[in-house]
Amino acid sequence: MGSTDDKDTFDHDLNNLDGLDIEEDFDYQKEIDELQAEEAQEKKERGARRAEKERRQEAEWLGEKKPAPAGKKSRKGLAAVVIIILIIIAGAGGFLFKKQADRRTVADFAAKVSEFQTNKLDGAQLGSQKSYFEDFMNKCQTAAAQSDISAIRDLQSQWDAMEKKFDEVSSGMASLTAFKKTADSTLAKFSVPDELKEDYDKFQTALKNAVDKGDYGQVETLQKQLDALVTNLNSGDLKTVQQLQNDIAGIGLNEGSLSASEQKQLKTYADTAQKQIEDKDYAGAVKTLTDYKKTAQQISDQLAAKVKAEQEKAAAESRARAAAESQAQAQAESIARAKYESQQQAKKSSTGQTQKQTSSSGTGSSSGSSGSYILPKSSSAYLTDADVKNLSSQQLMLARNEIYARHGYIFRDSSLRSYFSGKSWYKGTVKADDFSSSVFNKYEIANIKLIQQYE
Fold first, then answer.
1. Which residues of 209-227 are buried (b: 16+ CB within 10 A; e: fewer)?
2. pLDDT band at residue 362 using 50, 70 and 90 as cut-offs
3. So what's the pLDDT on residue 10?
4. For residue 297, how many other CB atoms are within 10 A of its CB?
5. Phi and psi torsions of 371, nearest 5°
6. Rounded to whole angstroms, how far apart are CA atoms 429 and 431?
7. How far is CA 13 from CA 42, 59, 96, 340, in A?
8. Is 286 in contact with 244 (CB distance < 8 Å)?
9. From the DSSP assignment, how many helices (H) and strands (E) are in the chain?
10. C-alpha span between 124 and 174 (Å, rounded)
11. Using one digit for the tens of pLDDT, what is the confidence trace for 75-110?
């Protein structure tokens, strides 16, 4: 029957409601219960209608008047209600399905943006191009935060092009970064001479600008510039190394004058510089040779200062000895003069004969001829006691000073100066303050000591 078919269809539709994703605020179970209650009511009414129908038929058989039907409800109206309810449920389910699909789209897009930001963009070397990717990511994050499905779809359509550009820029920047690392490593091995400083600075500026701008298209041009610069630096550093080696050799250190630690230090410099030159580490070689030169010069200056100090010390000691000897000489001259004057005074007071003998043995002998010596061999042979023991004090004093006079000593004492000025062989050329006993030979030194013993 029609009513049974309608019920089966209705029950089938109700059973399919379990698969719909409907929001919790729509109580479809309640609707089902209400529909079932209506169905029960309809069954009751159908039973009543059948009873009424049977009663009418019985009345007709009995010749009674046909009663009018009471409260008949249209089956078509019930079906329409059910259809409307199903349409409402289906619409609600479709709306909820779309809403969930949009939520999933937003969540998937946000995860995609986050993964790209974390795994690729953060820390990437992109130069001036980085702002493009950062702006794109900001748009994506804003669209996701606002659940702007339209904006998300638009950004999704641009995503592949963005990633392609990112890979291109990343690869280009990687090649530029690798080139910069190679260039820095290569140039670090060179010392930059003044004549190449301008070329070196230009290359470094061009390289920095390319890295800052992310202009990886400049790598080929920069490589040519680097090759030319390296060639010039290599030639310039070789000249610098050679000049430093020549400077070190010119210092002229004598190994015999160096201490063991100084020799070891200089050898270390030489060996290190040689190894650096072999490795073409010219920056290291120039630095090592510069330190080598500085150290060698310091050692040389120290040695020169030491020699000078020793010379000054020897000169000072010589001057001190000369001053002491000059003072002793002056004292001896003073004593001799006093003795001489005393003797002369004694001679004057003695008898004529004694004066004659004294004059004969003293003054005559000491004065002698203008070219005579009291002790002629005092500068060329060792004197003996026999040579001096019979001489008077005056003669001994004159004989000792005779040794000084041979070397041009200018006497402070006027009587000695007058005595030796009368000798044809005497040439006074050396002042007393400038005179040094170092001029005496071994005979003269020994003979002065001998004479002083008898004076």
1. ebbeebbbebbeebeebbe
2. very low
3. 39
4. 14
5. -110, 5
6. 7
7. 19, 42, 19, 167
8. yes
9. 15, 0
10. 10
11. 556 666 667 776 776 665 666 777 888 999 999 999
CA distance 2 to 195: 110
d(CA 190, CA 289): 14
Residue whose entry in the numeric block shows the structure tokens 């510069």: 290
Which residues are registered as beta bridge partners of 430?
Answer: 409
Q: What is the pLDDT of residue 69?
A: 54
Phi, psi angle pair for 65, to nearest 5°:
-70, 140
Q: Distance between CA 333 and CA 401 in Å, rounded?
A: 9
Lowest mean pLDDT among 33-42, 56-65, 246-255, 269-278: 56-65
Dist CA 411 CA 426 (whole Å): 12
Residue 325 neighbours by CB under 8 Å, 6+ apart: 435, 437
Handedness of CA 98, 103, 109, 111 (dihedral sign): negative
DSSP one-letter code for 19: G
Say if residues 282 and 276 touch (Cβ distance below 8 Å).
yes
Q: In this predicted model, which residue has the larger pLDDT, 135 or 51?
A: 135
Residue 409: how many CB atoms within 10 A of its CB? 24
Closest CA to 455 of 377, 409, 388: 388
Distances (CA, A) of 411 to 200, 284, 328: 76, 68, 13
For residue 351, pLDDT over 60 is answered with: no
Residue 161 to residue 177: CA distance in whole angstroms: 24
The first and second tokens of residue 232, run together, are 């010039």
Residue 78 CA, distance from chain mean position = 94
Give bridge partners of residue 409 from the DSSP assignment: 430
User: Residue 415 corresponds to which tokens in the numbers above?
Assistant: 């009587």
First to last CA, the chain: 180
Cα 62 from chain centre: 128
Look at residue 72 and give its three-state secondary structure. Answer: coil
Residue 124: the pLDDT is: 84
CB 207 within 8 A of CB 229: no
% of the chain exceeding 90 in pLDDT = 44
Residue type at position 450: L
Two structure tokens written together for 218: 């400049």
Q: 398 with 418: CB under 8 angstroms?
A: no
